[in-house]
Amino acid sequence: MPDILAIMRRAPVIPVLTFHDLGSVGAVTQALVAGGLPVIEVTLRTPVALEAMREAAKVDGAVVGAGTVLSPRDLEAALAAGARFIVSPGLTPALADAATSLRAPFLPGVATASDLMRGLEAGLSAFKFFPAEAAGGPAALKALTAPFGSVKFCPTGGVTEATAPDWLAIEGVVCVGGSWLVPRGAPDPVAIETMARRAAGLAARR
Fold this sequence. Notes:
Elements: H1 4-8, E1 13-17, H2 25-34, E2 39-43, H3 49-57, E3 63-67, H4 72-80, E4 86-88, H5 93-101, E5 106-110, H6 113-121, E6 126-129, H7 137-145, E7 152-155, H8 164-168, E8 176-178, H9 189-200
Parallel strand pairs: 1-2, 1-8, 2-3, 4-5, 5-6, 6-7
Helix pairs in contact: 2-9
């Protein structure tokens, strides 16, 4: 598998998707990939999540990962379902050890300097800043990047199309995670592809 940083660099926005049924998975994934966003995070928040990952992975060009991974058991189930990368809202020693032993590209969530230090001690160098807005917004992440200049970030949680450029302008931010690309309700593939094209055009300091 490629490392997590190589995956993060594929596009400036990683769509964060929560599927409640399988009927729209293919169309939504195709629209995102066609719009220039091939890296997709499917959250493990619903009973159909693992099957949705398998369906999304059938779309040519899609790089599908699992989000909301909370335990080694979740991680193993996601990898068995074909996840190409793993995203967690936080970081525990058990989860870090499992990701390392299984050689899984891993993007754990951090919100504080102590979180980052624990991640660095575990041999990690790329993190999800989460929950991005609630944890202090761009100003908080800018403050964290000063003592952690070599670390790369993907802010997620409250990021919108309007605020994404502010996040992407921060040194060390490679991409952002966003749920705005697929609004709630019946999906509109044409609208999703249009939003994806706009998102794919955003610049980041990589």
